[in-house]
Amino acid sequence: TNSFGTSNTDFPPGDPGMYQLDVTLRRGQNLAARDRGGTSDPYVKFKLGGKEVFRSKTVHKNLNPVWEEKASILIDNLREPLYVKVFDYDFGLQDDFIGSAFLDLTSLELNRQTDVTLSLKDPHYPDHDLGSIFLSVLLAPGDQREATMLMRKSWKRSSKNNNDLLPSMPYRTGNLWHRIYCPSKCVLMTVLLVSSDKHHGTFQTQSLRLSDLHRKSQLWRGIVSVTLIEGRELKAMDANGLSDPYVKFRLGHQKYKSKIVPKTLNPQWREQFDFHLYEERGGIIDITVWDKDVGKKDDFIGRCQVDLSTLSKEQTHKLEMPLEEGEGYLVLLVTLTASAAVTISDLSINSLEDQKEREEILKRYSPMMMFHNISDVGFLQVKVIRAEALMAADVTGKDSFSKSDPFCVVELNNDRLLTHTVYKNLNPEWNKIFTFNIKDIHSVLEVTVYDEDRDRSADFLGKVAIPLLSIQNGEQKAYVLKNKQLTGPTKGVIYLEIDVIFNAVKASIRTLMPKEQKYIEEEDRLSKQLLLRNFIRMKHCIMALVTAVCYISSCFDWDSPPRSLAAFLLFLFVVWNFELYMIPLALLLLLAWNYFLIVSGKDNRQHDTVVEDMLEDEEEEDDRDDKDSEKKGFMNRLYAIQEVCVTVQNILDEIASFGERIKNTFNWTVPFLSWLAIVALSVFTVILYFIPLRYIVLVWGINKFTKKIRNPYAIDNNELLDFLSRVPSDVQVMQYHELKQDPTHSPSKRKKNNPA
């Protein structure tokens, strides 16, 4: 580092005062090349006390990068140096180390902006010149009393909400990115940030309280796959000497819950859960085992923990975990893999516009790579450009001037990223690019707009849900924002440009595998409208079967002689010449007939207004329930009867959804799935035509009997049910339906010039 004049060495050791260090990361010079092309993709990390407090953006293919990013760090021990590390980003691989340096905080003058040059070194090669990093630093004393009060308030609020606390939080003012960090207290604080506003000449107040949402927005460094195999010799918690065990997993804010296995002390689960790994040194998965009791609190059976820092990566570990505070064992398979390609960048850094990167992505998902890494189905790029005419959530000033502080959360299954906040603006511009790895082409992209509020939880402004298979690549489109239930419009539109690249063979194979579960979010609650809606949906399915039976009966009764005669001749022909292959052939003809109707403009799919009305009623009831719950508190919760009713409600939902999914498969609601059904039915028809049934049954039986021998830890699944789980029900079709814009507000669309 550069040498300075008056330093802080005169301060007594262990001075309890609080300091604020403002560090501006300027640029790098002559950095070491780590890629084959003689360049690097550098980014910088700041560490304090062994914890990461700042991470810069990645500058691609540049040995003299310019960052101009700012970090504000709260420090209570000047004796601890700031550790600066520079890495070369490698797509999908472990990043390469370029060099590191230390900034001695005791050598800085108080309240004086100082330019610092750090020479990068590698401890293993101390003589190598690895380049330099240029910083501007300003150390100023902090107000200990004010900081303590802010920490107390934040701690109370965070403890009350039972949210996970973050070590750091990004925010943005102007063109600079900032982070606030307190290494010893490790709590989030509501911090007053002062920055000049070029247009208004005002100050901005930034809230860093949104711990839960911001935690999910961090870029994870790996994936932890946990397969729950079985339990052994669990403790009996019921009067019959057995238990109804289930397992809860928790890693940070991520939670999963297994299915319940009734009446056993040696349950077999065979379920898989995926966690995001945020910490470089791993983390600890908390596992608790419970006994399900109807009508009362569940019984605790035992707990255990998995320390991920002790497990090697890219390897599957079989663990037999003894339960503490209880009896028995859990058998798990745990695998740590490298991070998927999940990134956030500005519009200027576009992977698909870079011809070389685009070719690499297209090559990775080309037909030649169909059997390589089956779980990596495709690549998704989402451009969150701007929003218009958002709802005003904040009322400020004497004249009741209404504004919002909007930010955007982008979700794909359990992958959650978010934009920065644009303050006091109903027409925000984010101009951010998000990229995701697609594990299931039938996933739904959810984009939600919130209003950041420093005094309470974020306010919901609007949401859109977009199935990946319905996306048109390269089209900038304005989506009308919907309400929380996705049943109707709310105020505002959001402009998105989305690109999806995927391998159709991998997508087809993944369709026949179990669907990824979502994090545990909220428990089901009893709803009159939801119960009635599910009953009506099931009634529609049953009435369809009744109608079919009545139609056949009318043929028997000769209500229409020509129709009955045709049915009689068809019956004689089919029974006399029946072969098993005719079953998939008949379903194949039904699919082809419906496709012909759609192509010819005679679409027989009807919009279910009953379901739409029920969804709107349910939304109104949810609003009433929220208001009632605030008044009644926790004293009037429903107990056993509510649980029974919720179970019945969910069973009705499952039955109705099953029937609707079968109908929607043949109605070409999702063309990809209908084409996949055509391929499968064609294959089954040919197989059943040429191969005798006894051989098919023999192969099926041998496969079933030897499955556990060939793979003892195989997860049981039903390919047909897994396929149907990807077909949307009528309610989901309604939720994913794109709303038409108000004619008075017709945003423009434009087609992007596609370099490919």
From TrEMBL:
Could you give a GO molecular-function term held by this entry? Answer: calcium ion binding
A family per Pfam: PRT_C
Lipid bilayer topology? Multi-pass membrane protein
Name the InterPro entries for this protein.
C2_dom, C2_domain_sf, MCTP_C
What the entry lists under Gene3D superfamilies is as follows:
C2 domain (2.60.40.150)
Residue span(s) of domain C2: 1-118, 204-321, 355-481
Q: Where in the cell is it found?
A: Cytoplasmic vesicle, Secretory vesicle, Synaptic vesicle membrane; Endoplasmic reticulum membrane; Recycling endosome
- Protein name (Swiss-Prot/TrEMBL): Multiple C2 and transmembrane domain-containing protein 1
This chain's source organism reads Cnemophilus loriae (Loria's bird-of-paradise)
Species lineage:
Eukaryota, Metazoa, Chordata, Craniata, Vertebrata
